Input
Amino acid sequence: MDYNEEITDEFNGVKLWWSANRTTPRTQQFSFYPGADEKRFYTLKFHKRDRQVITGIYLSHVLKQGKAIAADNRQRKLYSNGAGQGWLGNRSSTTWTHVAFEHPATFDTLAMDEKKKREIKKDLVTFSNGKEYYAKIGKAWKRGYLLYGPPGTGKSTMVAAMANFLNYDVYDLELTTVKNNVELRRLLIETSNKSIIVIEDIDCSLDLTGQREEKKKKKKKDDKNEEGDPISAMSKNEERKESEVTLSGLLNFIDGIWSACGGERIIVFTTNHVEKLDPALIRRGRMDKHVEMSYCRFEAFKVLAKNYLDIDSHPLFGEIGNLLEETDMTPADVAENLMLKSDDDDDDDEVETCLKNLIEALKTAKEEASKKAEEDARLKAEKEQKEKEEAEKEQSVKEDVTQDAISAKEVKDNGVIH
Ligand SMILES: Nc1ncnc2c1ncn2[C@@H]1O[C@H](COP(=O)(O)OP(=O)(O)OP(=O)(O)O)[C@@H](O)[C@H]1O
Output
């Protein structure tokens, strides 16, 4: 609103007039900051019979709307943590740095089962409106999501869609650069409200899955190789400092030790190997919602076809639908085939070429999958045969030993037989 401009509003049948004003100071003192002494205010005019409505509900309605608009217009941020450099070039504590978050993914463009999408959106809305509820039940206002599925099924895309849906910032937490639990806690305390904290590929981020021994062995081997080269050993020493963040450190964070610093945070773990994760890490209550991101089926394909080709139907959809039901292809691979090669998405030939390419790719994938299944079956049969032969061999050795024992007993009982 400009100064001296007046706008009319209407609320529940009540008409009112807003105007923006300012006062300039009478004394003409010198100031470094032009306009520092200026007073700005809004004037609201309405009929006195409507006073109750205006002071009762209208003003809080305006404040609420204002906050919502400010939140919508807010430039959201994508934070990531990286190892900083100390004075001597050594590794110092990791800190958050940020860039503008501008990922275009939304739930509309996310290719997945519609029912699942609706369920997730409902869960997110319930969470973000749940301030009083969380306070009432005495729980930290946070929610954990575990997104699991093969690479390219849209786990990162889902995080972006969630952030855009809720208007939250995203903190991409790289655990391997966090020195220890103390540093983890500091980083988490520095996160702001209304944010999603993501740990991608949690199975690779930490020694939470029994890989610690492997790494120790490798380190021992490297140390041995560097024994004769102290300079390279010194320079690598800093670089190689492993994260000492522990499972219990991470569990404490999820359980809300840091909840004293406020709420409204969503924690997301993504993994390609859910079976590798420690059950303590992903039990319900910590990771409240487990979402499987799966291969592209027909319903998800239709979303991609709309996104990439701007079509809702096509005579080739039937064939594609059948192939997708029989073949496991990730949405990322399907999307790759649907990328137009020119910028003319009205070009019917181009659309058809894309769909035909996809059909070819699906047929190839189907053939490869069936070859692989045959090969797996052959290897399995071979293995079973080998195990059977070994068991038989073992059994025959056992029988020989028993026979020897019987013969020895007979010799003992009956004397030496010549
Ligand atoms: N479900 C999906 N809906 C829409 N686009 C998708 C989907 N899955 C994958 N894509 C497309 O494929 C690309 C890769 O997907 P994304 O990085 O989200 O997969 P991911 O499961 O996180 O993979 P990774 O496990 O390798 O990190 C995305 O940029 C997006 O264009």
Observations:
- The longest helix spans residues 348-414.
